[in-house]
Amino acid sequence: MASPLNNLAELYREQGKYTEAEPLFRRALYIREQQLGPEHPRVAYPLSGLAYLYFLQGKYAEAEPLFRRALRIREQQLGSEHPDVASTLNRLANLYREQGKYVEAGAGQVCGSRAALPTGVADSGAASKTSASRCGLSTQRPCESLP
């Protein structure tokens, strides 16, 4: 049940129907947490979707903890080399950039992920440490603790 809800929420978000998308993301998140547990990698999908919805609405304070939680789950469960980690890290960096938090936005500053993406790199989900190193970014920086 959670996947169709999440997919519909994504569609509404893409159509700019933010009011319709939010409760669907929240319901998909609730269902996944109840069925799979709060640290399961599939929980990160509605978390990240809801965070991106808030980002698009300029609700940065609401978006940040959701992006950070999705990033933590993905790094712990999938490993720092996974493309979903790169995608989440890129969106979190874009969030910081939009707020003028340029130090936090720098890839490698957000966390120690080796899949770090520089701000402005397309959110393709296929980036890796190779992408970061091609851009001259350090992929070995220490991680600040995530909540």
Quick recap:
With 147 residues, this protein is mainly alpha-helical. The protein is 61% helix and 0% strand.
What is the arithmetic mean of pLDDT? 79
Percent of residues in helices comes to 55-70%
- The helix-strand sequence is HHHHHHH
CATH fold-type name: Serine Threonine Protein Phosphatase 5, Tetratricopeptide repeat
- Based on CA atoms alone, the radius of gyration comes out at 15 Å
Number of domains: 1
Give the low-pLDDT segments. Answer: 112-147
Number of strands: 0
Please state the overall shape, judged from the principal axes of the Cα atoms: globular
CATH class: Mainly Alpha
Number of helices: 7
Question: What is the SS-derived class?
Answer: mainly alpha
The profile of the biggest β sheet is: none
- Corresponding CATH architecture: Alpha Horseshoe
Can you tell me about this structure?
- By secondary structure, this protein is an all-alpha fold.
- It has a single domain (2-134), classed as Tetratricopeptide repeat domain (Serine Threonine Protein Phosphatase 5, Tetratricopeptide repeat, Alpha Horseshoe), CATH 1.25.40.10.
- It has seven helices and no strands.
- The chain has helices spanning 2-14, 18-36, 44-56, 60-78, 83-98, 102-105, 129-134.
- Helix 4 (60-78) packs antiparallel against helix 5 (83-98).
- The radius of gyration is 15 Å and the shape is globular.
- Residues 112-147 have low confidence and may be disordered.
